[in-house]
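Whether sequence alone determines local backbone shape is best considered at the level of individual chains. The sequence in question and its structure tokens are set out directly beneath this paragraph.

***
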Amino acid sequence: MMKHIEFPSKNEYPIYAEMYMKLVNKDGSLIQQLKSSLEKTKTLINDLSYEKVNYRYKKNKWSIKEVLVHIIDDERIYGYRALSFARNDKTDLPGFEQDDYNLNSDTSERTIENIMEEYEAVRLSTITLFNGLSDKSLKRIGTANGNQASARALGYHILGHELHHIKIIEELYLENIK
């Protein structure tokens, strides 16, 4: 059975997250949107050639493969934060430096198939996590990198963050590759 997770109020997430929150369907099911996004991303990426997944639209910008690994890293981190908050952990969780994570990801040594296998596994884990959290635990607030958020807001953040990067891939990468 698929759980309905209500969209969080503005006081449940930091201001910087608004850019991600505005990309999701506020009236839709978080779980269903995570599933749909998984399928859309798989379809988009699986149709790309080796050259395209390694393409950078500008010097020093991430390749499509690196963007995907960033999405995976972010989802894992925000999923852990959501679990911690849902379990009422009062620890102020640390932030992370996305550029350092990317620099040390060794993405160029990985195949797109390997990256997509990890992406799907992480997404299915995220869906299972949120589908198993009680309404009470989803509303619990925690702190990470000095910012407060509810567990459910982090689920919507995960979704919006991916939608943000997929839009960039479609508009800045794929529109420029011939």
